[in-house]
Amino acid sequence: MIQRFFILCSGADSAILKSCSPGERTKYAGIGATVFFTAVMAFIASSYALYTVFDNLWTSIFFGIIWGLLIFNLDRFIVSTIKKRDSFKSELLQATPRIILAVIIALVISKPLELKIFEKEINQVLLEQKNELTLANENQIAQQYTPKIAELDRQILNLKNEISTKESVTDALYDTYISEAEGTAGTKLLGKGPVYKEKRDKHDASLLELQQLKEANAQKISELEAQKVSLQSSFDNQVSVSQPIIDGFDGLMARINALGKLPWGPSFFIFLLFLAIETSPIIAKLLAPKGVYDLKLEEEESVVKTWVAQKVQHREQLLATDTVLNRKIYGEIAEEEEIYRYKKQKAEELLKLQAEAFHDLQVKSL
Fold it and tell me: Using one digit for the tens of pLDDT, what is the confidence trace for 287-308?
């Protein structure tokens, strides 16, 4: 049962193989097993690759089965169309396009499995890339908000400096009227005279202006701080909205690019392994000597080819004979007087009918 299934996978003619030796059947069963397991590997590889795209198990399995059947059909076609010839050079020339196709298939199959085999290393590369993207994303978003926040900070600092300047002026007026009262400056008269009162009034007026300035600037600073908080909240919101996009940066193309950043040696040898698996049926058929199956298949093809050639030649001879007979028959008919008179009579009747029909048409148009 298993041998018949693998022979079916090899694309060989089971009817011819039944009349061959057990060794011949075993050879083609081995070729069919290689084709089958290559399709299984293709199914696994494509399912994993598609899972990284769709992120859905059943969808990946469904399309993986379709891809595996496609690879199975291609490999079966490649193996079954290679015919043994008497010249190895002609066989190699015949197999060259199929080998190129096998190389392409091996590359397509091996790449998703490489992604799975080196998944941990690829995840590490992707993590580093995500961190770099996160920093770059924050810097790009910050470029939109940093100038605005810096302008608000400058305005807040100006308001605070304005208060500090006013405080310095008020403190200076305080020192002035205290010194006047102590007699250490100004008129240098001890006591609270008219000059002291004048300077005290200036200080009190400046102190009142300072309090009003503090209240007004405090209100302005509060509003500017609220704007800063709003801008910072908007900045954090944009960062949080864009972060899932960066976190989802692990699709198929991203993983392939990350795989390219790893050392090429292990990946290359995995590709060689699948290339050997994919081309092994072709190489086996090229290197194997012409067996009983090949001879019988060639005999059947020769029988069909000869039969078709005979049919074509027979039809060509029938056509040539029929052409000669038709020429002779119609040549003799053309010389008979009775046929001539009959044809002339019919032609005259046709011309009369055409003339009458033309006359009726012209009358209707008047």
Answer: 767 767 676 777 777 777 888 8
